[in-house]
Amino acid sequence: MERSPSESASNNNRPQLDLFELLDIDDRPTLVFDLTNPHGIPTYHNASLEKIPLLGLKLGTGVLSNSASSKDQEYAAFIEWAAESEGQLAQWSYCGLLWSSHVLRDHWKIVTGSEGHEHDYISARRRQSEAPKLGRARTSAIKRPSHSPSQSQIKSMSDGSLEAQIAALRLRDRRPLATPATDTSVISESIQNLKVMKRLDFLGVFPAIALTPHHKFFMEFDWASTGLGPIDSWSINLRRAVYFLFSDPRPAALYWGGQRTMMYNESYMHLAGQKHPGIMGKTFSEAWGDVASDLDPAFKKAYSTGEATVHDDALFYIERNGYLEESYFSLAIIPFLGDKITTGEQSFEKSEIAFYNPAFDTTRQVIAERRMTFLLLSSNLMSSSRNQREFWHQLIVALQPDHPDLKFAVIYSVNLDASESGSEASDLSHNRHWTLQGKIRFENPTPGIPIAATEQSMERFLPKFSDLVRSDSPTLLRTEDGSLPESIARDKSAKNGELVQTAVFLPIRSTADTLLGFLIIGLNNRKNYDRDYQVFIELLTRQLATSLASAVLFEEELRQAARDHKLLTKKLAIQTHEALENETRFRRMADLAPVGIYHIEPSGLMLYCNENYYELTDHPRDKFAPMSWLNVLFEDDLPHMAQEWAKLLSGEPVNFEIRLRRPFIAEDIIDGEQVEGYTWILAAAYPERSSDGIVLGILGCITDISRQKWMEGFQKRKMLEAVELKRQQENFIDMTSHEMRNPLSAIVQCADWIGGSLDKFECDKNNVVIPRDVIEGYVEATDTIVLCAQHQKRIIDDVLTLSKLDSDLLAIAPIDVQLAPTIRKSLKMFDVELQNNDISLRFEVDHTYSNLAVDWVKLDPSRLLQILINLVTNAIKFTTTESTKNIVIKLAASLDPPDNSTIEYLPRINSARDSTNGSAWGTGEYIYFNIEVQDSGRGLDEVERTLLFKRFSQTSPRTHVQYGGSGLGLFICRQLTELQGGQIGVSSSAGLGSTFAFYVRARRCESPQGATPTLPIDSLLIPRDVHPKLVAKSRTRPPQEMKLSVPRHVLIVEDNIVNQSVLSRQLKSAGCIVSVANHGREALSYLEKSRFWKGLETAGNDLSVILMDLEMPIMDGLTCVKVIRQLQDEGKIVGHVPVIAVTANARSEQISNAKESGMDSVVTKPFRIPDLLPEIDKQIGISSMRGLERSALSPA
């Protein structure tokens, strides 16, 4: 910008002044900062600034160490503000001065400090110089320049520019400017702290907060007249304490300095009451002269120990709210360090102790707790009252202790006329009389308080008495309006005898709103009758009404209870008399009852039992103890009784049967059985229980059911016997039918063969030419017929013998006999059978026989030989198919029965049936004959041994390779041995053969003169050389339909060799091609090679039909046919294999079972070949039709 010529001329005439010469003579402290310097280091300061102790210490005259200056947050914040180029605050307060700044040429910043408008700068410097020089101990030595600038340097910078002047200023011969290095993080933190502190600062020239009236009062207070001095002279510690005081929302006071000068916040004004504002700035003793002595020990303790003290609920009487009020405060006295002071000649520094005093007004809480305690105590006392008299007494007791809120009490109760009851009385009644029940905290006597009064006299005692008693709520009485008489208003408990200013009248009513009394209570002069006081009085009124109503009600209940008791006593007497009569009647009935009746305690003690109970249980009549009745029970039933007893004790009724120790014996005999056994009783009991479910006793009865239980057992036994007998009969019929049909079938077939073969021979009228081989066949067929006849006869004999045994008709007829020769002769009957089967039989007589010199004895040889023949027959049957075929028969004798060392003898079925004790047996010495039959057969396993000697039992339900028996043989043997005083047994293991042994008892006898022993078994001997007669030639020719163009391929599956041979020969004679299998497994093996097996349809063996027996070893017929049908379903067998069952099981159930298992048809034995062949052709035809249908349905 260009200047005008006049301006240029004027400037040329101005003297050239040095800026710093002007600043050097300025009285204001000044700093100059180079804004281009990022370190914020002052470039210049004048001499006036050096006179400020704190700044002079840091600038110009000395330098703080880096660590010390970094800790001076106020200085760091001030330097940061002064060096800021823009955005800074307009003014800054530091070291008691208000600093402002100006910027020249956007390069230089000049900062000047001043005290403001109220004081000049000289006074400010004086106060600053008089201030304590804090922090000197931390300053380091002043740094001096090492050389002075030369004149040439000064001359070269004598330019008139501001930069030249500042550069020249730096080269002057003066002490160099030195400032501490500052930590920028510390400076930033300091600025933030000072900004926060400035917001709390209300003591400065420009307060940052809005001042409340209390703030203004505090600022305008003449602090210069106190020991603290004016506010602007206060130390930073005091200022901080004041800031904290005014920031505390709680009532709090601050005591500063040695005189404990007091200052407090706005919340404390309510606590100070009427002492505010007079106590502001006063010492503690001046402010609280009346209570200073009480708190002075607390201040001394805090001063000496440095520990805070707390006073909870301290009582103070404070003039506030217009009267001397009872107040309670919880306050604390907290010591802390104040300003440092110098004492003594050596300038010793120490810190003063200041006190912070927060206080809490707990008046309302303390008084409320006190009143609630009184209400609880009075409630506990009055709630125990049972009538009105006790209620008034308990009320007096409750009011007796001193209570600040109840200065005195006067209690009256109402008395009604006799004609007016409590329920009829009302507040409008004029017949009431009042009686003084008590007065508390009064001198006795007290004139003016009537002891008894009427309504009219009470009006003279209490003005407007009628209005008071009709009021529904307590009424306040005052001395000032005359409603409270002075005669009762004087507080006798106060030392100065001051009058009680107020009282309350409390009418006491019952819940029926009936007035029963009233109470006058003097109130506390130190508390206003405010809302809390009113609530307390209302609660007391309700408590009195409730407690009195409860007492009245209880009293009425007692009277009613007395009336009820009288009435109930009368009724009880009547009912007791009736109960005694009923008890006598029922006891008489119980004593005569036909069942046992009892009553037992839960402990088990018998309380009562009738006569029938004693007779039934045999319980001792004079011995009763807890659970003694258990001794009459059967021991095995005690656990059952324990279970039932537990149910009774748990409250559950029971009904059960149990046995007694006493046996049951009757005189009756039913079906040959004596009626006797256990004594059974039927017990029924139920628990008597109280209303809360506790069992009080057990009542019950017992009934003798012994005869019924015996009859139940008898019927059950008879039923089981009948069922078993029926089962045995069915089994017997099945087995007998089976065993009879088997030999009968062989007989019929042999006869058919003989008759059919004779038709083939040409003959004239007299002669028939028969080839030798045919003759031999006839002989063999004849032998077969004889053998089958013998077998049938043996079965018939067993059945007849069994019938005689069952009917007890079988008699033992002893004769004189020589036993060993008799046995040897009888064994000759087996010679032919033994030779045919290549079996070796050896008879041995043991040495014991000869040692005892046994000769003639008395016994029944026919029955003994019947046993022996049965055992030998069984031995031959089971030895025929074995590789080793040996049978050994041993005879031994002894004077005592043999032991069971090797043979396990069966126990005797009925020892009473021994007939050897009869007179027919003579008087000779007893001798026992033991006979063993040992074979090398297949032996018996454990299961088979258990079936032996049982009625209708066989070791296997099938016949073996030779004909079996009826299942009666061994059973009959057992019966016969027992009839002869002996036993029978066996010793056998599977695969090791068997040894059957029996013994009988006989007597020695003399040899009969001229007598020869006879063999009583002639009927059992069959001559070996028997040739049956040739039968005449049949006149009829065999039917032509028996011969087919296509031969029948028949597979016979039969385990019986005789039947297999006969049937095979007959079918061959009929033109059939026959194959045989001994059991089902062999039949399956044959099927695997036949045309029915898949893959062998053209190359396998031909097979048309299978004839299959049912009872076979290895695999029976039913199992085999099931496997065949399963293989057909699986496709392993192609087509349907015709299977005809050939069996002696002829019952309909057995035939149905066979067909259900897979048989196509069933042919029962005995049968004839002419009858069998049509069935074979029928099944072959059906199978062929099935094959054609299957071929038609299969794809081409």
Automatic annotation (TrEMBL):
Residue stretches making up the PAS domain: 582-652
Keywords: Kinase, Phosphoprotein, Transferase
GO terms for biological process, alphabetical: regulation of DNA-templated transcription
Molecular function terms from GO: phosphorelay sensor kinase activity
UniProt keyword annotation of Transferase present: yes
Domain Response regulatory: 1049-1180
Modified residues (4-aspartylphosphate): D1109
SMART domains documented for this protein: HATPase_c, HisKA, PAS, REC
Region entry Disordered, spans: 126-158
Database matches in PROSITE patterns: HIS_KIN (PS50109), PAS (PS50112), RESPONSE_REGULATORY (PS50110)
Biased composition (Polar residues): 147-158
Residue ranges occupied by any Histidine kinase domain in the UniProt entry: 735-1004
Pfam families to which the protein is assigned, alphabetical: HATPase_c, HisKA, PAS, PAS-like, Response_reg
Keyword Methyltransferase: no
Highest taxon of source: Eukaryota
Protein name as it appears in the record: Related to sensory transduction histidine kinase
Source species of the chain: Rhynchosporium secalis (Barley scald fungus)
